[in-house]
């Protein structure tokens, strides 16, 4: 697939995320009508891996509504969020202002981040929880991350495990509730078109741009892209918990997150790399 075709599909995703934003703003999933608690989206081990953030320059790629970006600012970081959706960036600015958080948000495609941020370098780049699947070219992404980091800077990817993305959340007609492998674990087969009429949150249907495109990326592809871009992988965690109950049979844990009662499989991973 050519870069022009990639750009076309990413523009379709941009339109879909613009259309999703008002649905997400009103959803119970994000709960923005309540007291904002951005740390509920983080596992304790994320903060262990990220370390002290006071006085650090932190960039959150593909930040959507920017709620997690606010958590970095509250921990003393100079926080910047970047997202492809103009509607999301506008909403993120409003949310941060209401929360009294000092965060800068920038609208840009991830691949244009270096230019959009005027060649600024960061101590930490954070991304994940449903971000990498919207990127067609991980080699180009890893190269971009390397250019965004200062020497010694850290990339932290906390992403849904490709095994989770391979499982079908809904049974086909005539099947039971068992989770089955329905989608590729490995990438390379090209984009998968999704019907984005209904998103992962509650609320009404998305109006307008409902086409969405995703690319599968196995963990080997992620690690290889980073190492070939000159980053060193320092830590890789696999977790069996998610911050919300994706499937009805999930049970709540002591952390307040959710896991499958059986079998124990990885649903989330955290990858720490340094430049």
UniProtKB/TrEMBL annotation:
The protein here is known as Methyltransferase type 12
The protein's matches in Pfam families, at most eight in alphabetical order, are given as: Methyltransf_12 (PF08242)
Q: Which domain of life is it from?
A: Bacteria
| Species for this entry | Streptomyces viridochromogenes (strain DSM 40736 / JCM 4977 / BCRC 1201 / Tue 494)
Molecular function (Gene Ontology), one example? methyltransferase activity
The UniProt keyword set, sorted, is: Methyltransferase, Transferase
What InterPro entries does this protein's entry cite? Methyltransf_12, SAM-dependent_MTases_sf
Q: Which SUPFAM superfamilies match?
A: S-adenosyl-L-methionine-dependent methyltransferases
- The record places domain Methyltransferase type at 59-155
UniProt record, GO biological process: methylation
Recorded hits in Gene3D superfamilies, A to Z, give: Vaccinia Virus protein VP39
């Amino acid at each position: 697939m050519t870069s022009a075709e990639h750009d076309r599909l990413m523009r379709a995703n941009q339109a879909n995320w613009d259309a999703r934003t008002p649905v997400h703003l009103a959803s119970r999933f994000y709960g923005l009508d309540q007291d904002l608690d951005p740390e509920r989206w983080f596992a304790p081990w994320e903060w262990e891996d990220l370390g002290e953030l006071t006085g650090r320059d932190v960039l959150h790629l593909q930040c959507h509504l920017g709620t997690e970006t606010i958590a970095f600012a509250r921990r003393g970081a100079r926080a910047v969020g970047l997202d492809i959706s103009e509607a999301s960036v506008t909403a993120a600015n409003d949310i941060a202002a209401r929360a009294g958080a000092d965060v800068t948000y920038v609208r840009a495609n991830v691949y244009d981040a270096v230019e959009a941020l005027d060649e600024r370098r960061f101590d930490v780049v954070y991304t994940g929880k449903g971000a990498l699947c919207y990127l067609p070219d991980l080699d180009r992404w890893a190269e971009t991350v390397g250019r965004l980091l200062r020497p010694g800077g850290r990339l932290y990817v906390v992403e849904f495990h490709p095994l989770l993305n391979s499982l079908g959340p809904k049974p086909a007609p005539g099947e039971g509730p068992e989770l089955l492998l329905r989608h590729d674990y490995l990438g390379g087969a090209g984009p998968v078109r999704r019907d984005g009429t209904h998103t992962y949150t509650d609320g009404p249907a998305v109006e307008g741009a409902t086409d969405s495109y995703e690319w599968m990326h196995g963990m080997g592809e992620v690690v290889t892209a980073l190492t070939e871009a000159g980053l060193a992988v320092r830590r890789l965690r696999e977790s069996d918990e998610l911050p919300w109950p994706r499937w009805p049979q999930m049970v709540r844990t002591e952390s307040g997150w959710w896991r499958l009662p059986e079998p124990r499989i990885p649903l989330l991973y955290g990858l720490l790399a340094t430049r």
